[in-house]
Amino acid sequence: MRFSKLRLNGFKSFVDQTDLVIGDGLTGVVGPNGCGKSNLLEALRWVMGENRPTAMRGGGMEDVIFAGAATRGARNYAEVALTIDNEDRLAPSGFNDSVMLEVVRRITRDAGSNYKINGKDVRARDVQMLFADASTGAHSPALVRQGQISELINAKPRARRRVLEEAAGISGLYQRRHEAELR
Ligand code: ATP
Ligand code: MG
């Protein structure tokens, strides 16, 4: 499973549709302060099901929608689409019929978020589980925010264990057990 494309529309500073191709190997994003580099990483986190506004440097989830600028009005929705190359057929079971997976999340003002996988409506949980079982996702240890290293060093053992569980790829199982216990 490899991320191959990211499309943003109305997400934070990306007011016009922006298509980014993620090639093989290492990809670097460079640009002046405030040009949107961190917003890109947040878009990736968000499309994988991030639901904590603080993780998106916002006060509420709708803060990811383009808020307007001197010359442009605010947008009414934000959308991020992530294309995943599943040529190796390593996606979790249930998603392995396709060589390409497109995960789309859209948020509309006053109407919340909705998700699609390959054009079909799915729940937030389905998207979160897809990525959790693939050992990635909004909470993936591969996404490192500024200041996160020192947070980890100062974290309580339980919080540190969660990071290790994400890295080991068992957080999907952990979430299912939690839901089973609630029933
Ligand atoms: P640095 O090099 O300083 O880390 P960066 O390239 O990571 O900068 P970002 O933090 O991604 O920059 O982008 C910040 C910009 O995004 C700011 O100009 C901010 O006004 C803009 N921005 C954030 N949220 C929104 C929004 N909802 N609507 C419009 N613009 C937004
Ligand atoms: Mg930044």
Keywords:
Chromosome partition protein Smc, Rossmann fold, alpha+beta, 183 residues
Here the CATH topology equals Rossmann fold
> Which consecutive residue ranges, at least 5 long each, have pLDDT under 50?
none
Query: In the CATH hierarchy, what is the architecture at level 2?
Result: 3-Layer(aba) Sandwich
The CATH top-level class label: Alpha Beta
Biggest sheet strand order reads 2-1-3-4-5-6
Small-molecule binders: adenosine-5'-triphosphate, magnesium ion
CATH homologous superfamily descriptor? P-loop containing nucleotide triphosphate hydrolases
Strand content: 15-25%
- The overall average pLDDT, rounded, is 90
Number of domains: 1
Head-to-tail CA distance between termini: 32 Å
Question: How many helices?
Answer: 5
Largest sheet: 6 strands, antiparallel
Shape field: globular
Please count the beta strands (DSSP E, at least 2 residues each): 6
Give a quick summary of the entry:
By secondary structure, the protein is α+β, with helices and mostly antiparallel strands.
Task: Describe the protein.
This protein has a single domain, classed as P-loop containing nucleotide triphosphate hydrolases (Rossmann fold), CATH 3.40.50.300. Strands 2-1-3-4-5-6 form a six-stranded antiparallel beta sheet. 28% of the residues lie in helices and 21% in strands. It contains five helices and six strands, in the order ββαββββαααα. The site of magnesium ion has 2 residues, from helix 1.
